[in-house]
Design goal:
The structure is a homodimer of 114-residue chains. In chain A, helix 2 packs across helix 3. The N and C termini of chain A lie far apart (54 Å). The longest helix of chain A is centred in the last third of the chain and has 25 residues. Helix content of chain A is 60%, strand content 12%. The first copy, chain A, is α+β, with helices and mostly antiparallel strands. Chain A contains five helices and three strands. In chain A, a hairpin with a 2-residue loop joins strand 2 and strand 3. The first copy, chain A, folds into two domains: 79 residues, Arc Repressor Mutant, subunit A (Orthogonal Bundle), CATH 1.10.10.10; 34 residues. In chain A, 26% of the residues are buried. Chains A and B meet through helix 1, helix 2 and helix 5 of A and helix 1, helix 2 and helix 5 of B. Chain A binds a DNA duplex (30 and 30 nucleotides) through helix 4.
DNA sequence: TTACTATAATACCATATAGTAATATTATCA
DNA sequence: TGATAATATTACTATATGGTATTATAGTAA
């Protein structure tokens, strides 16, 4: 039997799912330097307006960003910088993989003749 | 302009995508205590054989688990325990959210009359 | 060889979702 | 009030993928 309840695992999976889309990561990256309104996010990411709006809703519902209406425009900002720790960890993993691939290629040096 | 190249972000998104499925997290959890063969994983997770096989392939291609044939059976084990750090971080985030929701409910105590 | 077991691959269906065009909403200003 | 700008929502299409039944492959033993 699994010690971890399915419901908890499901929540973790759902969280990862939010972070598993390129467009949403682009939006988050554009917010890394601070709060921005939707228009600024659209400009910085190059994504469509309806698309950005949809992704911002998903990010908001996940509790990753916070919505702050301000006059005509709406500002969004990251609520929990944990995302960047997550990305950092993943990048470390990817770097290690690249190093291993690189070393695997080096060990083929003897075949360089062709 | 975005400082982080799209290609790098895409790889990060792809990595999160691998972790964004309940079944795959179940498989990873079953491997947390050490290497297991496919039959054992099937028993522990309750997932279908073809399904587990498919998920193991995805996890292997992502470099998250390692495949080790041994006689008739094939053993899988986690190559990089970084996944559990990732899950730990996500759980922290989820806990914080629950605490905040809990406090929000407490602040409604005055309405308890009904 | 044949029979059996463990694992993988294939084909298919059903569902989820990213992107977008069009429309709706909301706030501000004249 | 009406006009305009910013944002959100809706409806739709196209694509991706999870699950599964089926078939294929590989290893082992008789």
């Amino acid at each position: 039997m699994s010690k971890i309840p399915i419901s908890a695992l499901t929540q973790v999976a759902d969280y990862f799912k939010v972070l598993s889309e390129l467009s949403r990561l682009q939006v988050l990256c554009s917010l890394k330097t601070g709060a921005k309104n939707v228009t600024e996010i659209i400009e910085e990411t190059g994504l469509g307006q309806a698309n950005v709006s949809k992704h911002l809703k998903i990010l908001t519902q996940a509790g990753i960003v916070k919505r702050q209406p301000q006059g005509v425009s709406v500002y969004y900002q990251i609520t929990d910088p944990i995302i960047f720790d997550l990305c950092e960890l993943v990048c470390q993993h990817l770097e290690i993989q690249l190093q291993e691939q690189s070393q695997a290629l080096k060990s083929l040096d003897g075949l360089r003749q062709l």
